Amino acid sequence: MSVAEFDFVIVGAGSAGCLLANRLSANPDHRVLLVEAGGKDDWFWIKVPVGYLYTIANPRTDWCFATEADPGLAGRSIHYARGRVLGGCSSINAMIHMRGQASDYELWAQATGDDRWLWDGPGQTLAIYKELEDYFGGADEWHGAAGEIPVERPRVRWKILDAWQAAAAQTGIAPIEEFNRGDNAGSAYFHVNQRRGRRWSMADAFLHPIAHRPNLTVYTQTQALRLLMDDQARDDQRRGAWTTAAHRASGVRLLKDGRTVDVHARREVILTAGAIGSPHLMQVSGLGPAGLLAQHQVPITVDLPGVGENLQDHLQLRTIYRVGGARTVNTLYRNWITRGGMGLQYLLMRSGPLTMPPSTLGAFAKSDPALASPDLEWHVQPLSLPKFGEPLDRFAAITPSVCNLRPSSRGHVRLADADPLTNPKILCNYLSTDSDRQIAVRGLRMTRQIMAAPAMARHRPEELLPGPQLVSDEDLRQAASELGTTIFHPVGTCAMGAFDAHGLPRSADTVLDTECRVHRVAGLRVADASAMPTITSGNTNAPVMLIAERAARAILGSTARTARPCR
């Protein structure tokens, strides 16, 4: 067995891992290892925005997880895409740049007892977002233009989506300029993480520009098997801020090129393997709920009941309407001449339908006027298909999908056995609360109101899913169960939380403190979507970057005394 040593070992080269590798390796005194189970991101379809049709559900770029049969989904198991490639999910996701709403971060501040998560204020959430951005409109009170993450307008518009937006306005959902100012009420075309019509993943933004650094090593096609642990009491000088920890993460056992490799971390191990991968690696390493670990004969290192619990996701309810009098992707794609034209338009001008994210137009509204901020979001697509991965329908249609932004249902991620190469069991428990079922019905009814508004009349919309024959609340609850599917936003499985005066977590779900440090395990952080105590309003990639940046600053603050400038 070979052994290597670094200062920091980062597990997972997704969005957060790429940022952390960038920030930590900026100090040439830090030797940094970034580990990725998947391969390089040099495949053509990763860079073409519409290539998500080929990267999702493809084992070349996707873990291809499947959920457990879910009672809330009429007993169905669904595909659960997670990126398995440099850039992680940002190499296969919807490219939508969505910060969430100010109210989301109020919940984070309450959960962690840390007001630095609040939306506005010096060094707080909005300020960090601005520092990370390279915004197409230049710097202003809402945006920055000196950061690494490109934020662009979509490069194609659709008349049928403009009509939908006008119809939404007639039902009280007004057009707005954008969604990233803290209150998203209204409708707008989504801003995207692209650069001149190409997907710009977080590997493009943070990793590739600094890959030449001699103190940064990247392992691809390398899977983390388990965390290596030391007795903390034997290593007092490394305890740092984790003064109550009985154990310390000292490295990671890897499977690389068919061989087992142990890599040691002099300072920290940082998990950025996502809301599925990070808790699973912790569990097979003996960090998790004691009962679960004992059930699978995994030696218990630290009983952490919250590891793998608190899983939250946005359930999208896909409705399909046949339309007339307007082009849609369906009608363009069924003709080889127009397909060829789309390809030429992309190759020559980097514009047109091949630059489209999976959803182009969005809308936010309240399911109840008494709410302080919107709790429903629509992703509207100028296309339709029976289900993801199947051919487009051969008639003109649109798909307005609605989701509950703040679900109260909670699921879990749990190891299936002690073998780290066995996929974990994922149970989302969608629609398991009365509140979520009621909001699902309201979302479907509000979708019908928009489609029935005068602005849509000339397009003669015909409801195909769930179907006009479904009228009662019970009918629509059942439809939500049969139609609902993930929008690929799992979070919360190693949640940040607050601690009492004795250093004990105030909630059983709490795994991390506000700086993403694992409770009772020194030298270990989790800095990815797992850390969110509650899900944000909309797509989750941008909030993951916020978490990673905050974690990087916390780490660098603790090592600043030894830092020197990078040349």
Description:
By secondary structure, this protein is α/β, with parallel strands linked by helices. It has two domains: 1-95 and 110-117 and 191-312 and 409-430 and 488-567, FAD/NAD(P)-binding domain, CATH 3.50.50.60; 155-189 and 315-404 and 439-483, Cholesterol Oxidase, domain 2. Strands 1, 2, 10, 11, 12, 13, 27 and 28 form an eight-stranded mixed sheet that branches. Strands 7, 16, 17, 18, 19, 20, 23 and 24 form an eight-stranded antiparallel sheet that branches. It has a two-stranded antiparallel ribbon with strand order 3-4. The longest helix has 19 residues, at 541-559. The model is unreliable at 233-240 and 560-567 (pLDDT under 50).
How would you concisely characterize the structure shown here?
This is Glucose-methanol-choline oxidoreductase. This protein is α/β, with parallel strands linked by helices and 567 residues long. It is 25% helix and 21% strand.
Helix and strand layout, with pairings?
Blueprint: E1 2-11, H1 15-25, E2 32-35, H2 44-47, H3 52-55, E3 65-66, E4 79-80, H4 102-112, H5 125-132, E5 133-135, E6 149-151, H6 159-170, E7 186-189, E8 194-195, E9 198-199, H7 202-207, E10 216-219, E11 222-231, E12 247-256, E13 259-271, H8 274-284, E14 287-288, H9 290-295, E15 302-303, E16 315-318, E17 320-322, H10 329-333, H11 336-349, E18 361-365, E19 376-381, E20 397-404, E21 412-414, E22 425-427, H12 434-451, E23 462-465, H13 473-483, E24 485-486, E25 495-496, E26 510-512, E27 521-522, E28 524-526, H14 541-559
Parallel strand pairs: 1-2, 1-13, 2-10, 5-6, 12-27, 13-28, 14-15, 25-26
Antiparallel strand pairs: 3-4, 7-18, 8-9, 11-12, 12-13, 16-20, 16-24, 17-20, 17-23, 18-19, 19-20, 21-22
Helix pairs in contact: 1-14, 5-14, 12-13
